Each structure stands twice: as structure tokens, then as C-alpha cells.
């Protein structure tokens, strides 16, 4: 139905933009001292965590859970989470055709703000 409604070319462009946005989010994460990628970026999925250094895995897991809850409750963004090798991380799956590059600047800024405030 989506192909019929939007057309294949438009769907391909939207998917390609979401993949570009995932790469952009990865670049933002890699540029920040307190953020780290938890896995290679898979097309439109980015897994990462806030890591101010000096915390053990349990403390980092708790910190990132708290960041996720506050981020979701604020209404700014609604990432999900996953656990990779025992490490809780934030998971952003970009599939919304309305996502803008600025949205990722905002979410990274808010994660940093929340993380710094609660550590």
C-alpha cells in the first residue's frame, strides 16, 4: 500500500535519508567525549550509551536507563533500548520520514544535558 500511495522512488529516497541520518547521528556520538557507539551502525539503527568514565557496568547500565526514562518522559524523543554484551544502551531506529537532521542534534544535546545533571 505504501508503494502504491507514495511511489517506489519516494520510498527509496526516504529510506536513503534515514540511513544518512543514522550515519549523521553516529558522527555526532563519536564527536562527544561522553558518548560511545555500542555497535556498528546497521543501516538505520544506532546503539550507543552515555559513558562519563569511571563507572562500572552496573552503574553505567543504571545511568543509561535513567537517561532513557527522562528523555522519553520529557517528550523530546522516544528511543528504545537494548542490551549488548551485558551493556544497556540507547537504541535509535530511524524510520520516520518526518525526521530531520536537527532532531538528532537536539536528542544528543538533551542526552548530554541529562547525563551530566544526574551523574
Protein model, in words:
With 119 residues, this protein is an alpha+beta fold. The protein has four helices and four strands; from the N terminus they run H-H-E-E-H-E-E-H. The protein has helices spanning 2-6, 8-31, 57-74, 101-118, and strands spanning 35-37, 45-50, 80-84, 87-93. The chain has a four-stranded antiparallel sheet. Strand 3 (80-84) and strand 4 form a beta hairpin. The longest helix is centred in the N-terminal third of the chain and has 24 residues, at 8-31. The chain is elongated, with a radius of gyration of 15 Å. The mean pLDDT is 94.
Outline the secondary-structure elements.
Blueprint: H1 2-6, H2 8-31, E1 35-37, E2 45-50, H3 57-74, E3 80-84, E4 87-93, H4 101-118
Antiparallel strand pairs: 1-2, 2-4, 3-4
Concise account of the structure shown:
With 119 residues, the chain is of the alpha+beta class. The chain has a 4-stranded antiparallel sheet.
Taking the sheet with the most strands, its summary is: 4 strands, antiparallel
Q: State which percent range the strand residues make up.
A: 15-25%
Rounded Rg: 15 Å
Low-confidence stretches: none
Number of helices: 4
Strand order of the largest sheet: 1-2-4-3
Record field, number of beta strands: 4
Class by alpha and beta content: alpha+beta
Helix amount, in percent? 40-55%
End-to-end Cα distance, whole Å, is 47 Å
Q: If you average the pLDDT, what whole number results?
A: 94
Order of helices and strands: HHEEHEEH
What does the overall shape look like? elongated
